[in-house]
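Internal tracking record. Fields below are filled automatically when a chain is submitted to the structure queue. Please do not edit lines marked as system-generated. If the sequence contains nonstandard residues, flag them in the REMARKS field before resubmitting.
Queue: standard
Priority: normal
Entity type: single polypeptide chain
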Amino acid sequence: MGSAPESTWRRLVRGLDERTGLIAGIRSFADSPVPGGARWRYVFGSALLSSFVTQIVTGVFLAFHFSPTLNDAWGSIVYLEEKVALGRELRALHHWGANVMVGVMILHFAQVVLAGAYKRPRELNWIIGLAAGGLVLMLALTGYLLPLDERGYYATQVALNITASVPGVGPSAVSILQGGARFGVESMSRFYTLHAMVLPGALALLVVLHVVFVHRLKVTAPFSAAATNEPFWPRQAFRDALAMSAAFALTVVLALAVGTPLLAPADPARAFDARPEWYFLPLFELLKLLEGDLLLVGTVVLPGVAALALVLLPWLDRAPTVATRSRLRVIIPVFFGLAIAASLGAKAALDDANSPEYQRRMSDAHRAAERARALAKQGGIPPSGPTHLYENDPVAHGERLFLRHCRDCHAIAGDGGRSAPDLAGYRSPKWYREFFRDPNTTKYYGHEESVSKGAMKSIEKLGDEKLVALAAFFARGAEMRGVDEGTAKRGETVWKGESCMELCHTFSGAANPSGNVPDLKGHGSRGWLRGFLVAPGDARFFGKRNRMPSFRDKLSSAERDAVIEFVATLHEK
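SYSTEM-GENERATED OUTPUT FOLLOWS
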């Protein structure tokens, strides 16, 4: 009897295999012997490979919508997250995929060291793996900048400054990276080219070489492994698939549960506390500990020595087998170094978590980011770039100026300096009432640096009714809306009838003859604040007692008006 005719599908598969060897290659991998049998310790390489594939796929879709220019980068991310279906989730997947990839890479590194998988004849594959790890970190670093928000820009500036400190080659390397002596138009295109083309291509090549060498040399069997081997398929393949799925699932959970923050567009004129991602925090903390003359030790010497020691590890470990006790002389220093790095990273994170000043500044940054996104959605991004968003909104522009120039002295709801009054609720009847009751609390003038510490006494003796009326009178003068007119008029009567108050403050809109306390006509109004910002030491304000700097030369007239517009909103705080 003749054999059954070959199906079309089988003919296609056979033809493909004849021309490419793909099927034979897959079978070769499936039948590849696993020394000692299937084990969970072998799964980290596959999980790392799957994370890299996730980054490639999400990166390609992100590139469809990203514009790598100074004026458009931030705005293109806003467009992606606000207008593109699942755009926010896509960016979060790419962000957290990088974090998961680095985490799995560290676990893979630890497993390779423990297994002695760097020993002869695997020395070259060990070096290829180290080079691939370096490229992963470079990918993370170059991708950090691309959204061009405050976090990415300033973290990149720190990295560039570290690179520039390397003797000889540092300044030239920075010039090549950013396309000149300063960060500019070419910088974004160069970082994007590195991140999206050069580094992924180089990493893909190293990954292919690494996998080929692993297939040829096999994995390193554990110390107690039996002599028998087991094919990769199905038990080891199942473990690898499960690890790959777990890595992707973790990425998805983090992306959906945490998301990826986009801070305000980078503004070189605005200060920001640069912090890298967690995997660079150990170096960040090390540089804080080795400031000044020792900075080069932290930026070049220690990282260089560590990298060289890892490259030479196959030759430093002369133990004939992986089970030799003398290998501990190599393993212990490597894991001690990892423990030191983890401790430095943890210290940096805890220091920030326990720093009220840092938390306040980050709260300011997130508030500014929300405002910037709201402005972008309302009116679009100006052709001149996203940093000009705020110029179209005096309140947002004024808040940025206030945080830069005023926050060291004035607090808002307890966040800020303590040498001048807390301005939360400023100009509101409630603010004035509390001030009248106890002007010498630390919320007002009860601090050592105050211009009026102890100068004004509580007028609580007037009673609640008069204080409420008096507060309404001053709130109306400060241009507060919604103040009851009848109550404000009664407050004016209280003011005129309390001669004890007129002995200190005048109410004429002109200089106070005493030159020690401000004239209170229009106190808190825009006109009053304009004069106060220009000349706080004028006799109309605090005279010789003044300790507040003049902003005549520090801010333009338009900038002072923007600050005043922001201050005018503080009654809502």
